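Practice problem. Given the sequence and the SMILES for adenosine-5'-triphosphate, write out the predicted structure.
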Amino acid sequence: MTVPAPSRPQFPSRRSNGLFASFGHAWAGLIHTVAWQRNMRIHLISGVLVGLVGSGIPLGLAEKVTLIFCVLLIFFAEILNSALEQLVDLAVQQFDEKARLTKDAAAAGVLVLAGGTVVIFAAILINYWETVRTSTDAIFRQVALGLPLAGCATVLVLPQPRPAAVDVLAFLLAMGLLALTAPTSASLVFTVLTAALLVIAAAAARERRRHPQP
Ligand SMILES: Nc1ncnc2c1ncn2[C@@H]1O[C@H](COP(=O)(O)OP(=O)(O)OP(=O)(O)O)[C@@H](O)[C@H]1O
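Answer key:
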C-alpha cells in the first residue's frame, strides 16, 4: 500500500502566489524586522549615517562598494538572526541549552559583522582624513543637514506610540533635507541608499501603527 505524500498545508494567503507576491512577502519580512527588532533599528540608523558620510566624502569605488556591502550584509545577518529567534521560540517554549546556543551563535554572527564594519569604516575615514580636513565647507554643510536628517530617521524607528502626523512630518522633513544634500552629493548611490533606508523606516513606522502587537 502506498502512503500518500504529505501535502503542503494551505495557509490563508494575503496575496496571490506569483512573483510579485514573493517580493511582497520578502518586503513584509524586512519591514517587520525593522519595526520589531531593536538591533535592526540601530543598524538602520547606522546605515543612514554611512549613507550621509558616503555622499559627503568623495570615496573611491572600492571604499564605496565595501561600505554598501557591509550595510547590506549586516541587514542580511540581522534578518536571519531574527528568523532563527522566531524559529527557536516556535519550537522551544522553555529554557533549553541548545536553544540558548542557537540564539547566541546567531547573535554572534551579527556582532562579528558589525564590529568588522566599524573597523572598516574607521579605516576608510582615517585614510580620507586629509580630504575631510580640507573640505570644511562641504563637511559642515553635510553635518548641518545630515544630523537633523538622522534625527528624523530615529523618530521614524522609535517604537513609542505617537500620532501619524509626527511620522509623516519626520519622513517629509528627512526627504527634504536629503534633497538639499543631493545636488552636492559626492555619490548618488549613497544618496539613493539613504533615501531607501528612510522609506524602510517610514514603512516600519506604518507597520507598527497598523499592527501594534508583533
Ligand atoms: N528558550 C531559551 N532557552 C535558553 N536560553 C534562551 C532561550 N531563549 C533565549 N535565550 C537566551 O536569551 C538571549 C536573548 O534571547 P531573546 O529571544 O530575548 O532574543 P533578543 O533579546 O531578541 O536577542 P537579540 O539581543 O539578539 O536581539 C539568547 O541569546 C539566549 O542566550
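Check your answer against the key. Residues 61-91 form the longest helix (31 residues).
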